[in-house]
Amino acid sequence: MATLLTIGDAAKASGLSAKMIRHYEQSGLLRKSPRTDAGYRLYNSEQVNQLRFIRQARNLGFSLSDIQSLLELWQNQERESRAVQKLARQHLDEITAKIAELQHMQQVLTALADSCRGDGSPHCNILNQLAKPA
């Protein structure tokens, strides 16, 4: 018989909080777990592996929708690796665009911060620049 874990033990084994496990069940990423007579959730090793998979994917910034797709691909032994790579490349493109956006913000904020005297006077070019029409 397979070992079943309570939500607390599943949380420890997967590196997720019990709250996040309940959230993933609620969102449909993880199938609902059976309950004891007292109402406690019980998780099998397959579910704990899915939770670890979800945690890793979330750590890489995948959306819940993308994680659902990745889980389906992971569980489908008939999958084509190109479908997995396509999802990863799309996410990588989004990250690359976000990095470029953040770098631009950094440059603008650096220039603004450098343009402010930062002394006791009320004049500050940062506020003047923010008040300008776009």
Report on this model:
The protein has six helices and two strands; from the N terminus they run E-H-H-E-H-H-H-H. The protein has a two-stranded antiparallel sheet with strand order 1-2. Helix 1 packs across helix 3 (45-59). The model has no long low-confidence stretch (mean pLDDT 94). It has helices at 7-14, 18-27, 45-59, 64-75, 81-115, 125-131; strands at 5-6, 42-43. The protein is mainly alpha-helical. The chain has two domains: 1-62, Orthogonal Bundle (Multidrug-efflux Transporter Regulator, Chain: A, Domain 2); 80-134. The longest helix has 35 residues, at 81-115.
Architecture per CATH nomenclature, i.e. the level-2 architecture of the largest domain: Orthogonal Bundle
* Total count of helical runs of at least 4 residues: 6
The CATH C-level name of the largest domain is: Mainly Alpha
- Total strands: the figure is 2
The ordered H/E elements are EHHEHHHH
Strand arrangement within the widest β-sheet reads 1-2
State the shape: elongated
Compute the number of structural domains: 2
* Main sheet overview: 2 strands, antiparallel
Low-pLDDT regions: none
CATH domain topology of the largest domain = Multidrug-efflux Transporter Regulator, Chain: A, Domain 2
